[in-house]
Amino acid sequence: MPVALLALAISAFGIGTTEFVMMGLLPNVAADLGTTVPTAGHLVSAYALGVVVGAPLLTALGSRVPRKRMLLLLMVLFTVGNLASALAPGYGWLLAGRVLAGLPHGAFFGVGAVVAARLVRPDRQARAVATMFLGLTVANILGVPAATLLGQHLGWRATFLVVAVIGLGALAALARLVPELPVDERQGLGREVRALGRPQVLLGLLTAVFGFAGVFAVYSYLASMTTEVMGFGESTVTVVLALFGLGMTAGALAAGPLTDRAPRPTLYGSLAALALTLVAFRFTVHVPWLALVTVVVLGAVGFMTTTPLQMLVMEKAKDAPTLASASNHSAFNLANAGGAWAGGAAIAAGGGWTSPVLVGAGLAAVGLAIAALAGLLDRTGRNAEGASHVVARSPLAGPEAEAGPAAGTGPEAGVRTPVSPASGS
Question: Quick check: pTM over 0.85?
Fold first, then answer.
C-alpha cells in the first residue's frame, strides 16, 4: 500500500478521537462550565451538526480545488476548531468550536476516500479506503480512552490541545506524503450535484442512514448497559468500549478485501449479521462473558458496513464521486443521531436498558431492505449507469493497474467500465 495512506490514517485518527472523546468528558465539561450533563450532551450533537452541514457544503465549495490542497485546508480547519474548543471561555464558545471542528469531517473523508482509491490499482481500491478508515477505528481503541484519561486528570481543555497537536502532525504528514493529483477541468459543482441525485446514490445514502443507525442505537447506551445489565463496575466501561473498538478494527480489516471482491454481498452480509447480532445481544447481555464477546462481534459487523457503502456510493457517482462520498459521511452522522434518539426513545418508553438492541436490529433490517432494493435495480437493468470503478488507472500504481481485477469474479467484482483518473477527483 502507498505510504500516502499513512497520512490519511493519521488524519482519521485525530478526527475519530475528537468525534468520540466528548462522550467520556461530558461530566468534566459540565462541572467546569457550570452546566448539566444533558446540556453538555449538546456538544456531541453540535459536532454531528457540523459534519452534516460541512460535508456537502465544503465539498461543493472545493470542487475545483486540487485534492491535496483540499485535504490540507480541511485539516487546518479541523485543527483550528479543536484549538478553539480548548481555549473556549464558556459553553457557547465551546459549542461553536465543536461545530467548527465537525465541519471538515465529512468532506475530509469524502475527498480522502477518492484520493485513496486513486493511489492504487482498481482491484485494491476498497482496501485502500479501508486502510484510511483504520485510523478511525484505532482512535476508538487508543485515542479516545487515552484522551478521556488525559481530560479527567489534566482537564478537558488539555484533551483538545493534544488533538490540535495531532492535527498539526497530520498536516505535516499530508504535505510530505500525499502526491499532487490533477483535477479534471470539466469537474464542477453542477456535475457533482447531478451525480449525487442519481437514484442508486440516494439509495446508498439511505442505506447508511438506517443501517448504521442500528449500531448507534446500542453504542450510545453501551456504557449504561455495562453497569446496569452486564453487572460490571464503572471502571470496566472503558474496557468494554475498547473491545468495541477492537471489533471495529477487525471489521475494517476484513471489509477491504471482501469489498474489493464482492461489494454488494459484503454489504448484504454485514447488515444481516448486524441485525442478527443485535437480536442475540438481547439475550447474551445477561451473561457477562458472552456479552463481551457480542460487543466485539457487534463492533466488527457494524463497521464492516462502512467500506462497501462508501465504495458503492462512489461507484454509482463514478464520474463525479467526491460530493457523494462526502455526503455519505453526513448520512453516517444522521445515523448516529437518529440511532441514539431511537434507542433513547425505547428506554424512555419503559422498554428497559436492553430495548435499544431490538430497535437497532429493526433499523439494520430496514437498511438491508433498502440495499436489496438497490441491488434489484442493478439486476433488472433499471440503473442505466451500471457499475464502474471510481478509478480505472492510478497515476502511481504502475502499468499493472491497467489490467483491473481478474475476470470471472461475478457481476459485482468483475471488470468494470473504466473512467479516467482525472474524473475521479
Answer: no
